[in-house]
Amino acid sequence: SGLNTTIVAAGKLYFGTATDNTELSNTAYEKQLNNTADFGQITPGNSMKWDAIEPERGAYTYAEGDVIANLAKENGQKLRCHNLVWYNQLPSWVSGGGFDNATLIDIMKNHITNEVTHYKGRCYAWDVVNEALSDAGDGSYRSNVFYETIGEAYIPIAFAAAAAADPDAKLYYNDYSIESAGAKSTAAQNVVQMIQAYGAKIDGVGLQSHFIVGETPSTTAQVANMKAFTALGVDVAITELDIRVATPETTADETQQAIDYASTVKACMQVDKCIGITIWDWTDKYSWVPSTFSGEGAALPWDSNLDKKVPVYDAILSAE
Ligand code: XIL
Questions:
Q1: pLDDT tens digits, residue range 200-220?
Q2: Catalytic residue flag (residue 23)
Q3: Model confidence over 62-82: pLDDT tens digits?
Q4: Is 54 annotated in the active site?
Q5: Nearest CA to ligand 1 atom 5
Q6: Is-above-0.95 flag for pTM?
Q7: Is the peptide bond prior to 55 cis by the omega test (within 30 degrees of 0)?
């Protein structure tokens, strides 16, 4: 029994992984990706983002996103669709277009309506708004073209447009550094309440969970934080889990990494409304970490040769 079958038997909806189109040409990679004993859910790492889907205004390109959606369907895996509104991987025609309030609202709604309609009925969940909060530590919104032009209302407007286009998809707010108590987590709870106050539907909060070995929040801290969200009437999901180390990694790093993965999985197991766990790809070969955090990597449960890190894998399994 694998990571997915075990967590499903314990009452969760899925254990899953991100993937990306270019990786699918590697047959050994694809074989394990398709292994539904371990992965009952997949997330496209890039191919449903705005720059991939609407690189020019009104010109929609779904081929790459469809490859991932079709793969999920063939495999019988749930699909988390990622993402609709984000300051990053946003084409310059949007970020630098100089649009006024009404025009940018129109552009954002059109993007959401078109993409959500295209994938209607296929997404278990949509990450509607990604990373809207700043890292200032004061709970403020991140300055981006949507916030500067529309104000905080861009967030509920986005959720309402997504809900109208696919009433059955679970709609998520997704962010990082909101996995334990602190100003940013409190701000994310305020985002949930703000969306609700506008009368829009929000179903869940995605806790990205890009952790550092030895600095992963404790199970207790993660549970308390998850419950602060679920008390607002939403689900939580761990959406982008990885636990990075300074490379080259040591045996001691791997031992601690196994402990950190386990403490995170245990937290989700202890919260009924933590519905599932997604790792941000499964092999170090294709992790985003080394190219983003210089000198860090080895963040996933399989190494760069696609070999299972047995202590890490087993720790996740026993925590489920
Ligand atoms: C990352 C992808 O994995 C990379 O391939 C890409 O170059 C940059 O984006 N938070 C998110 C994800 O919500 O979309 C990001 O994915 C990682 C951080």
A1: 999 999 999 999 999 999 999
A2: no
A3: 999 999 999 999 999 999 999
A4: no
A5: 288
A6: yes
A7: no
